[in-house]
Amino acid sequence: MSELSSKADQLKRQADLIGLTREAVFTDEQAKEVLQGKITDGYLVKVKIDLDSLNGMVLILVSSIRKHIMELYAVVGTSPTFRRIRTFADHVQISTDLGDIGKTGGYDPAISENIGRAVHRAFTKEKLEELLPLWQKKDPSHIAEILEMPILAATKGRNIKLQAEVDKLSTAKFRYENPMKGVILPIPKPEDESASAQDASVPGISTEPAKGELSSLERQIAQYRSSFPKELNMKTVISPINGVEFDNLMEGMEILFRVPTETPEGLTNAQILGLIDEEGKISKEPVVGRFLGIAGNKTEYHIFAEGPNQYLLHSVEEHPVKVAIPKPSSMTGAANKGSAAQGAKKKVGNAPAQDSKSSGANLFILMGAFVTIVLFGVLIFVMVIL
């Protein structure tokens, strides 16, 4: 029982890590490479703050692929624990220390939130695009000068000293194993963040949704998810010749998917769908789903279908493709029946010809025998007379 429980926990952990990784990347292919350790999808910026009589830490988790802040923690106060924290320390140890401070109440939530909001505003997407190449080289030198004035303005402080380091890591692993979880909440992006980004780039244009507001694509996806208890991530079976184009897909039409069994989540989904036998062999047969619709924008297209047992099948494509559909079994059966009938017809048609040939041959033999007998009789008659 314990072994089964351990395996279930392991599968759940893998599924959770996959879900968290997808939030930091654009495609399933990138998520797979992150989970396999081929690429790293984020940075953790560690900033130590000495502000007048206060001390603290700011941890900023940044997606290096999507180029935005995923989580931001600001913990500032009077706890003596702050003094022993060093920016070069392991991020797990730093998070553990901050979690302990949160449990003992040794920080000021109001000041911490003001600082967190100021950091959010300072690290716009444009600013992150400038900093990411430096962080790739482990160069944190510009962080202090970017944050000093915004933090002073947010806290009305006088003296400030900042120290910063940058770690390259997996964003999903940090979030999943975070010791602060349930003790210290991340600081949310300010409601006026989209306006700040707008001022920093092009006046009058804002492409970022405000806090709590879903993008158009997210709203479309949410509509499909709302009617199903469980969602399975799949791969579209593509058929460039016989497939159906996006524009010609109709609701209820059967389309084909495959389970990406090269990932732990895929193996779990294959088991859920009954594609793994008792010997552990995985069936290569495609999974049939009834097409529901496509949620998309110019860079990604989310295909949704209803699969077996009311599972929501979900695949993502970067551009429109021709989707494979099941081969109609009735046509195949008809073709087989047709060929069989044709063969039978040939046999039936040949039978009379063969019978007529047999009859002709037999008649010819009888006539020959009759002529022979007559000639033999005439010969005997002549010999008797003579």
TrEMBL record:
Annotated TM spans: 363-385
Segments of this protein annotated with the region Disordered: 333-356
Domain of life: Bacteria
Keywords of this entry: Membrane, Transmembrane, Transmembrane helix
Protein name: Uncharacterized protein
Organism: Leptospira terpstrae serovar Hualin str. LT 11-33 = ATCC 700639
